[in-house]
Design brief:
The chain contains 33 helices and 34 strands. With about 950 residues, the chain is α/β, with parallel strands linked by helices. The chain folds into 5 domains: about 190 residues, 3-Layer(aba) Sandwich (Rossmann fold); about 140 residues, Ribosomal protein L1/L10, rRNA-binding domain (Ribulose 1,5 Bisphosphate Carboxylase/Oxygenase, 2-Layer Sandwich); about 110 residues, ABC transporter ATPase domain-like (Helicase, Ruva Protein, domain 3), CATH 1.10.8.280; about 200 residues, Rossmann fold (3-Layer(aba) Sandwich), CATH 3.40.50.300; about 130 residues, Up-down Bundle (ABC transporter ATPase like fold). The strands form 10 sheets. Strands 5-20-21-3-22-23 form a 6-stranded mixed beta sheet, sandwiched between helices. A hairpin with an 8-residue loop joins strand 22 and strand 23.
Length: about 950
């Protein structure tokens, strides 16, 4: 029996599909919540426990502060006791900003900036020499030491290699009481009206003092005053000219190159920040990439003429100023806008794309008259570039972006920083070189760093280095050794982002917190699973409670306590069906327990499919960490691409193979990573990529609108006799446009009541009672059901209801086949999990008529799926392959890998240690491979 004082008590939880459940969850333990997809795990963990924890936190603020935070709705639960402060580590919380990187999320980059600002050596970007900086006292001592007995001029540099006549400057210098200047290496007297050649570059220094250096107090006092004056006018830099040898030496309070005199500002942490104007590369504003016009996107088909839409941004001929200008350019260069673009002279195309001004005369032979023409054309490329740079509206920016490519910034070469920042080094490396290293290499570099630092640097840097090492070790422990700190956070998968946040939380060493994680093992190879479990145990051992929503077998078996929610999904779930230690869970009779104790399992096929004998061959892929990989993909089979996290699977498939296929079949414009050649494209006729991005970001989007079955349902309602009598069109049955929807709630079914100091309250719309449509629309019925009743049906109910309407039946049947029979047709997309969203996309693709020759790419389709759901999904996938299609799956889940016909294993490690083809062939052949980590785990599954 659980100790009441050390538990979180949840009483009467009814959020989403939870059936008024009461549960006690032990604190300071690792608790796993499992169960079928859609059974209510996230509803309990996130929408009840986390939501209440967050609400209580916000309630501690003053009423004034709360009005800016937006309200938090109280979850539908009677009571929660024993709740600690809650931190949720979800999959979808990374920033999509291009400025966010792994280094900035983990805060390691902040420590690196501090290390470089305080402990780095500066080098000159002109000569590569080490920069020097002196105090005024040191400069005085050096001058006395090196120039004793010599005649010197003390100079203050004011102009360095710039054009101009500088008459005003000379006037100003004279007013300040100086008599001489040194211009371009020659000392001259200042005269009235003095000026220089304005078109040549000049160097100008003020002669502050001319003196012989002697070691006596008066001379030293004069020297100190002159140094001070020269520093004031020369902006912390002065020059000493030896009158006998005519040699010049520079001295500076800032960092300065001893030979050329260029100086850097003293470094501050923001000099190394690409998010600060002080450190960002001025050309790309610290993004590392710039957008450049791609002429192929402007002229996708050179065989078309300008008139028939050959210039994509302009479209087909319209009677507008821009087409009149193009006709005028045609007059000048002798072409017509009906000629194919490829026949237009090159000079004319240059003017069309890049603009120009011109006046010319054309004489007409028939009429014997001449006409004057004037061209003042901005150029299509320039226009698009200006719209992208200067337009205030997002839609115009997006339009311009369609004709551009993102390329690394030519000035900073993708490093994001100013030139000066890259010439500060610690142990021969600048900050960008460190950020580009794999975390495993970076950890090794830091472990070896202390032996390369001077005593002064050690004193400054020891604390900073210790912090950096700790944080790097946490990242290593959650299996992210292959990432680099410069990796953009928007390119991370959900699982990677979640593990980075986990590493940051372990680094913060908080105690007494309740952590809730959502499937942290996503995208993680079995090999790294142990490290992840160990990290979670570490969090628990320092005195935190950890709740994990998870389907992973290892995680369930190592938990202290397991809660199984079921028995089925959707409205057939939401009950606690088993609770206790893993050993007690195994004895229960739930579906989860049967998969864990081996009573139920995914059967290995008796024989593997042989495919259709045709191949798709990709040769010489070298993107990111791939080391000249060549693969042969047998068509007509289920192919699994495996390998540890970061080994190069996504680079090979999502960034190289998919863009090639997409460009070939659908004229996709995404540029693939470098490769040598591809063969066999003629053997397939289309490619479909199904990822896990949400299907809609607003509550108005739902499975029915996404799979387009709602369009067919609306058409069906317009065909009813009552609807035809009233003259209703399909728009009448849409809740997004005026006409048929309830205007009180604008078709959303609920009204938001804004309470100034309290959370917003959502109440059912009193006009339509949550039905979304007005009375007249709801009077139209099909088989006794109104359009609103149809949206409230579960997919399981809709299948028999629409049995006689093939177009609708086919679509709802495929949603049922992928195991989503429990969701309603009108369920808000925002409430669907990543795995559910992916299966709806899969259903959307499956319901289209397949050609039996399609190439499907699925990226980790088992995310968020229970063992039983994986079985349902694999049945659907197998049906597709049996029709002759090819399905390529990137996957870590052994249940899927063992069912594949052909495996391609990339590895052996992640990051730099990966990117090679380790094994290929049937699961049985791959399992014999000694080098592959996947083989080790696969062997156990096949036994």
């Amino acid at each position: 029996m659980l100790d009441k004082d050390n538990t979180i008590e949840v009483l009467g939880a009814r959020v989403h599909n939870l059936k008024n459940i009461d549960i006690s969850i032990p604190r300071e333990k690792l608790v796993v919540i499992t169960g079928l997809s859609g059974s209510g795990k996230s509803s309990l963990a996130f929408d009840t426990i986390y939501a209440e924890g967050q609400r209580r936190y916000v309630e501690t603020f003053s009423a004034y502060a709360r009005q800016f935070l937006g309200g938090l709705e109280r979850p539908d639960v009677d009571k929660i006791d024993g709740l600690s402060p809650v931190i949720a580590i979800e999959q979808k919380t990374t920033s999509k900003s291009p400025r966010s990187t792994v280094g900035t999320i983990t805060e390691i980059y902040d420590f690196l900036r501090l290390l470089y600002a305080r402990g780095a050596d500066a080098y000159s970007y002109n000569t590569g020499e080490k920069m020097v900086s002196y105090s005024d006292e040191q400069i005085k001592d050096l001058i006395i030491q090196d120039y004793n007995g010599k005649r010197i001029n003390i100079l203050a540099p004011v102009i360095k290699a710039r054009k101009g006549h500088y008459a005003e400057l000379f006037q100003q210098i004279t007013k300040q009481g100086f008599l001489k200047v040194r211009v371009n290496g020659e000392v001259q007297d200042l005269t009235a009206g003095m000026k220089l050649d304005r078109y040549k570059t000049h160097d100008i220094e003020i002669v502050v003092d001319r003196m012989v250096i002697e070691d006596n107090p008066d001379n030293q006092k004069r020297l100190a005053e002159s140094i001070n004056t020269a520093m004031h006018h020369g902006e912390n830099v002065l020059m000493i000219l030896d009158q006998d040898s005519n040699e010049v030496r520079y001295f500076s309070r800032n960092l300065m190159c001893p030979s050329t005199g260029i100086s850097y500002q003293n470094p501050e942490p923001n000099l190394f920040s690409f998010n600060s104007p002080k450190g960002a590369c001025p050309h790309c504003n610290g993004l590392g990439t710039v957008h450049e016009i791609n002429v192929k996107k402007i002229i996708p088909n050179p065989k078309l003429s300008i008139k028939s839409g050959g210039l994509a941004p302009l479209g087909e001929y319209k009677s507008s100023w821009i087409f009149k200008q193009l006709e005028t350019i045609g007059e000048k260069f002798g072409f017509k806008i009906t000629d194919p673009i490829e026949k237009i002279p090159e000079e004319a195309m240059t003017m069309i794309l890049h603009g120009g001004k011109d006046k010319f005369t054309v004489s007409s032979k028939d009429l014997g008259v001449t006409r004057d023409y004037k061209i003042d054309f901005e150029g299509i490329s320039n226009f698009i570039k200006n719209q992208y740079d200067e337009s205030a509206t997002t839609s115009i920016k997006r339009w311009a972006k369609d004709f551009m490519d993102e390329i690394p910034c030519p000035v900073c070469e993708g490093s994001r920083l100013k030139k000066e920042a890259l010439f500060f080094r610690v142990n021969e490396k600048n900050i960008t070189e460190l950020c580009d290293m794999d975390i495993s290499d970076l950890t090794a570099w830091f472990h070896d760093l202390n032996s390369h630092l001077t005593d002064k640097q050690l004193l400054i840097a020891s604390e900073i280095v210790k912090e950096i090492k700790d944080r790097l070790n946490f990242l290593m422990n959650v299996g992210l050794n292959y990432l680099a700190l410069s990796r953009s956070s928007k390119s991370l998968s959900g699982g990677e982002a979640q593990r980075i946040r986990l590493a940051t939380q372990i680094g913060s060493q908080l105690v007494g917190v309740l952590y809730i994680l959502d499937e942290p093992s996503i995208g993680l190879h079995q090999r790294d699973n142990e490290k992840l479990i160990h990290s979670l145990e570490q969090l628990r051992d320092i005195g935190n409670s950890v709740i994990v929503v998870e389907h992973d077998k290892d995680m369930i078996e190592t938990a202290d306590y397991v809660i199984d929610i079921g028995p089925k999904a959707g409205k057939y779930g939401g009950e606690i069906i088993s609770i206790g230690t893993p050993a007690e869970t195994l004895k229960s009779d739930t579906i989860t327990a049967q998969y864990l104790n081996g009573k139920m399992k995914l059967e290995i096929p008796k024989e593997r499919r042989k495919g259709n004998g045709k191949f798709l061959k990709l040769t010489g892929a070298t993107g990111n960490n791939l080391k000249n990989v060549s693969i042969e993909i047998p068509l007509g089979q289920l192919i699994c691409v495996t390998g540890v996290s970061g080994s190069g699977k996504s680079t090979l498939i999502n960034e190289t193979l998919y863009p090639i296929l997409n460009a070939y079949y659908f004229n996709g414009v995404k540029k693939p990573q470098p490769y040598k050649k591809i063969e066999g494209l003629e053997h397939i006729d289309k490619v479909i990529d199904i990822d896990q991005s949400p299907i809609g970001r607003t509550p108005r989007s739902n499975p029915a609108t996404y799979t387009e079955v709602f369009t067919e349902i609306r058409n069906l309602f317009t065909m009813t006799s009552e609807s035809m009598i009233r003259g209703y069109k399909a728009g009448r049955f849409s809740f997004n446009v005026k006409g048929g929807r309830c205007e009180t709630c604008e078709g959303s079914g609920v009204r938001t009541i804004e309470m100034n100091f309290l959370p917003d309250v959502y109440v059912e719309c009193e006009t339509c009672q949550g039905k979304r449509f007005n009375r007249e629309t709801l009077e139209i019925r099909y088989k006794g059901k109104s359009i609103s009743d149809v949206l409230d049906m579960t997919v399981d109910e809709a299948v028999p209801f629409f049995e006689n309407i093939p177009k609708i039946y086919r679509k709802v049947k495929t949603i049922q086949d992928v195991g989503l029979g429990y969701i309603t047709l009108g369920q808000q997309s925002t409430t669907l999990s990543g795995g559910e969203a992916q299966r709806i996309k899969l259903a959307g693709e499956l319901s289209k008529k397949d050609t039996g020759n399609t190439f499907y790419i699925l990226d980790e389709p088992t995310t968020g799926l229970h063992f039983e759901d994986i079985r349902v999904l694999m049945d659907v996938i197998n049906k597709l392959v049996d029709k002759g299609n090819t399905i390529l799956v990137i996957e870590h889940n052994m249940d899927v890998i063992k069912l594949a016909d052909y495996i391609i294993d990339i590895g052996p490690e992640g990051g730099k240690g990966g990117g090679q083809l380790i094994a290929k062939g049937t699961p049985e052949e791959v399992a014999k491979n000694k080098k592959s980590y996947t083989a080790k785990f696969l062997k156990k599954e096949l036994e």
